[in-house]
């Protein structure tokens, strides 16, 4: 199955809630009247595109319908597709892999899919011929590093671990230093994720970042926030808080396969202008992909 096919299949819940309802709306309305636009707005909000972004999108559709003298509701689908794509393509930057080693810090609330993301990314990089080291910098959660070790085993990469309760920054420092000494290509730092509302977690993550910078000037090269798409608008709240504290370089959106709320990608992008760099569409090693705005929009708007 090609990537686009797989994405289409995995996004079926979002598509069912969005594209099918859009198709329905288009069929029900013979013309583009006020009521049509109101329903379009509710439809976007229901797909978790976010109130602000939904309003903006509907405004744009209205303006273009007028300017382009469109009468057919069916034209709206194409306009939406173009506008969503434009939002997602703005300032889209791929994952950096240009430093030696490239240090990628992965942060996020527990349960969002941080550790799985680190594991899947390690697997992917290794398959691309890169030499990867993991850092188990979540030293708080019991068994967190064991879980990471399991992923390391699956992905066939090494992992640097300290004792539970140790200093997470020290783990990251050791991993980056070891990777430098061994001439490796990438270090993936898995971090703790107790609730983002606790100030001390942010302080700790800032420290990890700073210490990593001492081990290798310029690092971390990426600070990726993992957010769970099934939590909808909560993901946006988390993204805002982490970005404020850490200056994120991008997002990983997980569990897109299990949600009807895939529209959150659009809300996050439009509101925070942070690139979505990777998406998780399942629990397997192969289920992490580069975020491709074109393919995403294709999959989202695909008609059954
Ligand atoms: P962490 O606490 O943030 O490190 O989260 P984990 O990596 O342990 O993941 C939490 C749960 O989410 C696990 O059961 C994962 O298998 C699951 N998970 C992670 N990513 C995805 C995804 O893209 N799709 C699905 N369906 N499940 C995922």
Give a verbal description of the structure.
This protein is an alpha/beta fold. Helices cover 53% and strands 13% of the residues. Strands 3-2-4-1-5-6-7-8 form an eight-stranded mixed sheet, sandwiched between helices. Helix 1 packs across helix 12, helix 2 runs antiparallel to helix 3 and helix 6 packs parallel to helix 7. The model has no long low-confidence stretch (mean pLDDT 91). Bound molecules: guanosine-5'-diphosphate (GDP). Guanosine-5'-diphosphate binds next to helix 6. The site of guanosine-5'-diphosphate has 18 residues, from helix 6.
Distance N terminus to C terminus? 17 Å
Q: Structural class per helix/strand content?
A: alpha/beta
Order of helices and strands: HHHHHEHEHEHEHEHEHEEH
What spatial order of strands do you see in the largest sheet?
A: 3-2-4-1-5-6-7-8
Let me know the largest β-sheet: 8 strands, mixed
Number of strands: 8
Bound molecules: guanosine-5'-diphosphate
Q: What is the average per-residue confidence, as pLDDT, rounded to a whole number?
A: 91
Q: Share of helix among residues?
A: 40-55%
The rough form would be described as elongated
**SS summary, helix count:** 12
Radius of gyration: 21 Å
Strand content: 5-15%
Uncertain runs with pLDDT below 50, 5 residues or more?
Answer: none
């Amino acid at each position: 199955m090609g990537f686009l096919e797989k994405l289409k299949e995995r996004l079926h819940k979002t598509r069912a809630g969005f594209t099918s309802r859009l198709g329905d709306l288009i069929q029900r309305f013979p013309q583009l009247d006020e009521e049509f636009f109101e329903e379009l707005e509710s439809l976007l909000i229901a797909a978790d595109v976010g109130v602000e972004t939904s309003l903006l999108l509907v405004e744009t559709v209205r303006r273009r319908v007028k300017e382009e003298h469109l009468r057919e509701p069916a034209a709206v689908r194409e306009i939406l597709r173009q506008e969503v794509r434009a939002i997602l393509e703005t300032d889209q930057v791929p994952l950096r892999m240009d430093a030696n080693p490239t240090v990628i810090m992965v942060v996020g609330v527990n349960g969002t899919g941080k550790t799985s993301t680190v594991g899947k990314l390690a697997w992917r990089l290794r398959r691309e011929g890169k030499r990867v080291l993991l850092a188990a910098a979540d030293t708080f959660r019991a068994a967190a590093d064991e879980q990471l070790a399991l992923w390391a085993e699956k992905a066939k990469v090494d992992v640097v671990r300290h004792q539970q309760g140790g200093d997470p920054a020290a783990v990251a420092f050791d991993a980056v230093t070891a990777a430098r000494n061994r001439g490796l290509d990438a270090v993936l730092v898995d971090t703790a994720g107790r609730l983002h509302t606790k100030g001390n977690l942010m302080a700790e993550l800032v420290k990890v970042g700073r210490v990593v910078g001492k081990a290798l000037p310029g690092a971390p090269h990426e600070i990726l926030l993992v957010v769970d798409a099934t939590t909808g608008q909560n993901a946006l709240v988390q993204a805002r808080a982490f970005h404020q504290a850490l200056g994120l370089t991008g997002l990983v959106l997980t569990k897109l396969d299990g949600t009807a709320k895939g529209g959150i990608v659009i809300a996050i992008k439009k509101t925070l202008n942070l690139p979505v760099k990777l998406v998780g569409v399942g629990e397997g090693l192969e289920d992490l992909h580069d975020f491709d705005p074109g393919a995403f929009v294709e999959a989202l708007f695909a008609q059954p």
